[in-house]
Amino acid sequence: MAFAEISETSLDLGRHLEAVSAPECGAIVTFIGQTRDHDPDVEGKVELIEYSAHPDASEILKRLANEVEVPEARLAVSHRVGTVRVGEPALIACVASAHRAFAFDLSRNLVERIKTEVPIWKRQKTHGGSHSWKGLE
Known about the structure:
Elements: E1 3-7, H1 13-20, E2 27-34, E3 46-53, H2 57-68, E4 73-80, E5 82-85, E6 89-97, H3 100-117, E7 120-126, E8 131-134
Parallel strand pairs: 1-4
Antiparallel strand pairs: 2-6, 3-5, 3-7, 4-6, 7-8
């Protein structure tokens, strides 16, 4: 595994791509989860999200990435905490392997497990000043 981390700073796609690039890999699947301006459960336009994480979230993310990774693939994944504005990445996951189908499957598995297993919560703030909390899905 290249890396799996919780970050308080902006996420860099180039860093993730560089970490998984290898001559034996013919496919790199990239997932970017970014803050959007709406949520069906929120009234009004979303302005930003404030992510907070359990103190063990970083170790849980690393363990999960190690469980998902296999010798035929390379992965790098980061999740933001703190304030993430609309359009900014909150999650970047890159998976590289020899073949695309395998990389797609592994990437989807990784992202779905992050959403359900890593204790990260988000507080969505709207332009009108209201907010709502969401936890593990």
